[in-house]
From TrEMBL:
Assigned GO CC terms: plasma membrane
UniProt domain Cytochrome c: residue ranges: 50-129, 144-222
Species per Swiss-Prot/TrEMBL record: freshwater metagenome
Protein name in the entry: Cytochrome bc1 complex cytochrome c subunit
Keywords from the named record: Cell membrane, Heme, Iron, Membrane, Metal-binding, Repeat, Translocase, Transmembrane, Transmembrane helix, Transport
Predominant localisation class: membrane
EC number annotated for this UniProt entry: 7.1.1.8
GO MF term set: heme binding; iron ion binding; quinol-cytochrome-c reductase activity
Location within or outside the cell: Cell membrane
Annotated catalysed reactions: a quinol + 2 Fe(III)-[cytochrome c](out) = a quinone + 2 Fe(II)-[cytochrome c](out) + 2 H(+)(out)
Pfam families: Cytochrom_C (PF00034), Cytochrome_CBB3 (PF13442)
Topology within the bilayer: Multi-pass membrane protein
């Protein structure tokens, strides 16, 4: 009985609550530190110190005016801490960055850096904090399941990019770009980084194999012509309906007028 009373008394003690909170913080903080150290060690071994240093020089010369000297971001550009190497490889490798002006959306343009320079800048940004890495080549080969990829694409992507990747208009001057001719690497990087108005599809949403299937589907669409003949830029039923309305119905009206004039 006395032992039970002592235990009850210790539970009611303010010191007990402090000990429980401290223990919780210790375990959670320790676990986070271990996980972070593992990620940081992976980042550190992915790039050498020389690559990171050279990448920082390129960053300071070409990107710091908008993104800040320490990549912390400014009013002219967002922070790059935690965006990962994949984001740099996509934005710079597609010519969208460095941006030439503000607007609803950065367009593609001529790439201004070599592959080596892009890789160095990606190494520097990747060293700042953990983030999406450049995808493994084995997921960039168009050897997946095109049928499954088409299904995934229609569920997750077609509402903006069109069912065959022909692109489409969004709100306030934004748009979903055409996916025809886009490299497999940039397609994969767009899915894991969510550029512009695109959502992020991490491995919990779409596994690497799912992403490869989508890449395979897009490659299939690039290599095969429309089975229905002239596709009218693959813009869908609105464009097709307009074509029928103007040329089909217009032709019928023209023939009717011609027949009426001929009978008179």
């Amino acid at each position: 009985m006395s032992l039970r009373r002592r235990l009850n008394g210790s539970r009611r003690s303010p010191l007990a609550a402090t000990i429980v909170i401290a223990a919780g913080l210790l375990f959670s903080g320790g676990g986070f530190a271990v996980a972070t150290s593992v990620v940081e060690s992976n980042v550190a071994t992915a790039y050498t110190a020389d690559q990171i240093a050279e990448g920082k020089k390129l960053f300071l010369s070409n990107c710091a005016s908008c993104h800040g000297l320490n990549s912390e971001g400014t009013k002219a550009g967002p922070s790059l801490i935690g965006v990962g190497a994949a984001s740099v490889d996509f934005q710079v490798g597609s010519g969208r960055m460095p941006g030439q002006g503000s607007g609803p959306q950065l367009p593609k343009k001529t790439v201004q850096f070599t592959e080596e320079q892009i890789g160095l800048m990606a190494a520097y940004v990747a060293s700042l904090a953990p983030g999406p890495a450049i995808p493994d080549d084995k997921y960039l080969e168009a050897t997946g399941d095109a049928a499954h990829g088409g299904e995934l694409f229609r569920i997750n992507c077609a509402m903006c990019h069109n069912a065959v990747g022909a692109g489409g208009a969004l709100t306030e001057g934004k748009y979903a770009p055409v996916l025809k001719g886009v490299s497999a690497k940039h397609t994969y990087e767009a899915m894991i980084t969510g550029p512009q108005n695109m959502p992020v599809f991490n491995d919990s949403n779409l596994t690497p194999t799912d992403k490869q299937d989508i890449i395979t589907y897009l490659a299939y669409m690039d290599e095969n012509e429309s089975a229905g003949g002239y596709a009218l830029a693959s813009l869908g039923p609105v464009a097709e309906g307009l074509f029928v309305w103007i040329f089909g119905l217009g032709g019928i009206i023209g023939i009717t007028v011609w027949l009426a004039a001929k009978s008179n």
